Amino acid sequence: MLQNFSIFNTIYNDAPQPWQLGFQDSAAPAFTGIVDLHNIIFFYLIVICVGVFWVLGSIMYYFNTKNSPIVHKYLNHGTLIELIWTITPALILTVIAFPSFRLLYLLDEVTSPTITIKVIGHQWYWSYEYSDYVTDSGQSVEFDSYMIPESDLELGQFRLLDVDNKMIIPVDCHIRLIITGADVIHSFAVPSLGVKIDATPGRLNQSSILAERTGTFYGQCSEICGVWHGFMPIAVEAVSVQDYLAWIDSV
Amino acid sequence: MSDGDLSSKYVLQTAGFDARFPNTNQTRHCWQNYTDYFKCVAAKGEDFAPCKQFKRAYHSLCPNEWVSKWDEQRDNGTFPASLEP
Ligand SMILES: [Cu+2]
């Protein structure tokens, strides 16, 4: 009911905007964690910047040659100040390391997944394989995902981002991604889901995603892989579990 | 098809966490399940139900291209590991 009034209806930014500086809206706990860490560190960064430039500005203003012609006489050495400006940054870096490592290890964790999706990078497209339902007769679901060329775009589709076959995932399910490359190194990255992991030929990398809401999330290959590196986008569509099962049944 | 039919047809289940492979690199996780399956079959026969577990796991984890390459190598006798139980 409340959703009918537009002020109660959140509209998420799930695609990059021209000249965008900030992040896209998060759709996964991983990305929320990354954004929070960024914002917390950025606050202290601003405090430090103001402090440093304040000191620098004051020195230039009060101790220039005109105001104090022999200031260099006192600028040779100062053990105390040197200790302070060496130890303080070291402590700050140590303090930043704790939340940073905590997040890093949380992102590495693969919590008992409900489905596994294999993601394979090719020159220059992605292909996806869903093989959890392979029975004696059953077939593995696999398809290629190509960028839609600009000439074929329909109204509302994103240039250089939309693909013909999206990767479909169920919401609120822990999903294991097995990422590999077929030819050269690619990198599978979707900002709003908080994943970026190399697709290396001959190696299977594991990552985990959890979509907290339905929607379509975009990413791009993030490892230079050849001439059409910029034209192999990733589109992930998170749907309800029922819709996911219906989709699996239809392909 | 109603939702009930679909959720009994497709069980949302996949290879679980394996303490032998706790890292991001899961290459061996796939390989181990593939070889274990054929070792299991060689020891207990195709119809031995517990072997199916390995089969499901390697299907979930191994890229289909790898599986068909290894299947081919087994047929040609060039598979680079012993599948004797
Ligand atoms: Cu690429």
Automatic annotation (TrEMBL), chain A:
CDD domains to which the protein is assigned, alphabetical: CcO_II_C (cd13912)
Localization annotation: Mitochondrion inner membrane
Gene Ontology molecular function, alphabetical: copper ion binding; cytochrome-c oxidase activity; oxidoreductase activity
Domain Cytochrome oxidase subunit II transmembrane region profile: 15-111
Domain of life assignment: Eukaryota
Catalyzed chemical reaction(s): 4 Fe(II)-[cytochrome c] + O2 + 8 H(+)(in) = 4 Fe(III)-[cytochrome c] + 2 H2O + 4 H(+)(out)
InterPro entries per the UniProt record, alphabetical: CcO_II, CcO_II-like_C, CcO_II_C, Copper_CuA, Cupredoxin, Cyt_c_oxidase_su2, Cyt_c_oxidase_su2_TM_dom, Cyt_c_oxidase_su2_TM_sf
Cofactor: Cu cation
Chloroplast in keyword set: no
Main location group: mitochondrion
UniProt entry keywords in alphabetical sequence: Copper, Electron transport, Membrane, Metal-binding, Mitochondrion, Mitochondrion inner membrane, Respiratory chain, Translocase, Transmembrane, Transmembrane helix, Transport
All residue ranges annotated as the Cytochrome oxidase subunit II copper A binding domain in the record: 112-250
Signal peptide span: none
Membrane topology: Multi-pass membrane protein
The record's free-text note on cofactor binding: Binds a copper A center.
Example of a GO biological process term: mitochondrial electron transport, cytochrome c to oxygen
Pfam families per record: COX2 (PF00116), COX2_TM (PF02790)
Residues spanning the membrane: 41-63, 83-107
Similarity-based family: Belongs to the cytochrome c oxidase subunit 2 family.
NCBIfam families recorded: CoxB (TIGR02866)
Name the UniProt record assigns to this protein: Cytochrome c oxidase subunit 2
Gene source species: Pisolithus tinctorius Marx 270
From TrEMBL, chain B:
InterPro entries recorded: COX6B-like (IPR048280), CX6/COA6-like_sf (IPR036549), Cyt_c_oxidase_su6B (IPR003213)
Keyword terms of this UniProt record: Disulfide bond, Mitochondrion
Biological pathway: Energy metabolism; oxidative phosphorylation
Pfam family, one: COX6B
Localization, UniProt: Mitochondrion
SUPFAM superfamilies associated with the record: Cytochrome c oxidase subunit h (SSF47694)
Main location: mitochondrion
Biological process according to GO: mitochondrial electron transport, cytochrome c to oxygen
Cystine pairings recorded for this chain: 30-62, 40-51
GO cellular component: mitochondrion; respiratory chain complex IV
Highest taxon listed in the record's lineage: Eukaryota
UniProt xrefs under PROSITE patterns: CHCH (PS51808)
PANTHER family: CYTOCHROME C OXIDASE SUBUNIT 12, MITOCHONDRIAL, CYTOCHROME C OXIDASE SUBUNIT 6B
Protein purpose: Component of the cytochrome c oxidase, the last enzyme in the mitochondrial electron transport chain which drives oxidative phosphorylation.
Family as reported in the entry's similarity comment: Belongs to the cytochrome c oxidase subunit 6B family.
Protein name per UniProt: Cytochrome c oxidase subunit
